[in-house]
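Entry 14. Structure prediction run on the chain below.
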Amino acid sequence: MKVLSVVWKIYDDRLQEFSNDTNGLIVVRDICEYIGRRIESYLLLGKAFLTGIKLGNIHIVDSESIAKRFPTKSHLEIMSEAFKQALSDIQPDIVHFHDCGDFCRACIKICIEREVPYVFTAHGFIAKNQTISSSYDREIAWQEEVYTTSDINIVAVGKGIAHKIYGDYPELRDGHLHVIQNGTTFRAEKIISDLKFKLGLQEKKILICPGKLTKRKNQIQIVKAYKRLPQSVSKNIGIIFCGNDRLDGELQKAIQAAGIEESLKYVGAVSSEKMKEYYSISSGMITASFTEGLSIAALETVAYGLPVVMFSDLECAADLNNEHVSCLAEQRTDEALAGAIEKWAEKEWDRDIILEFASQFSMEKVADEYIDYYEDILRRTK
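Output returned:
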């Protein structure tokens, strides 16, 4: 069997054009890699024109030669031509889309025209009634176009996001939506680090907050919640924020205005490998995101044997809702989040139990489930 995966971008240090993107984009690369250990796995990336090379078990599709053939065409037109060429050259049994932006939607239309079986994975979902930022209106429109496509096959990366999708598109309950939980290759490592001392947090219990700083990730509320903690509790807790800053310094200003720079630190973007050092000095992870499919950062956290603090209405809370693994704030208020932080700080967490829980999120299992689903789709479309 041959699968052609299509996505705008991934994270991979081996590709210079894609070496600065992290977090959720890692999982697409890993899915393609682990699928490639069992079947032929091809990947077309829309963001940049690349030569055809092999990365591990992934065949990167050539788009550079197509760009040279059509120098006057737009980027989207060139990538659409590259997709058509890939269909002809590879003749995949199935095409797997990992986002619903302009590029992937254009390729989905080509699949429909040519009657090529395809599947779409929903790594995230913005509900129609969810107000985060006006910038998400376009994403909701993209979703509407993809999710209402006739005979669409959709994979939700977690139970929580599947429930959310059903809320807006109940018609998908008739077999068009399938759950395959995200996985991670992350494994706990013993690392001797002086990071705590460098950050001035050596006397504190650390919560790590990975992810780019955005309105959707909602890191500012964590600052507000921290200020709600009793001083007897907050004095023993430090929080480290890491990720690209898309808020123009808003988080740092909020920390400074609250006068808690000694306990809350922003360290900028951190590589996947360096994150292991941050996990090694942490005692848990915190997120206040408005929406997460099945957070890769959360899966990395539990793979390190650490608990997660989050709001109970977050999609991935349904997948991580275990009293031995997560600490949930039942309401979206600063007070409720502060209460969850305090509960986390007071509880004795069993690392072995968390590691056992995390074992279910292996990439081998994810790849096997995707291949089984490909086979099911192909049987139904014959």
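The first helix runs from residue 25 to 35.
Filed with the rest of this week's runs.
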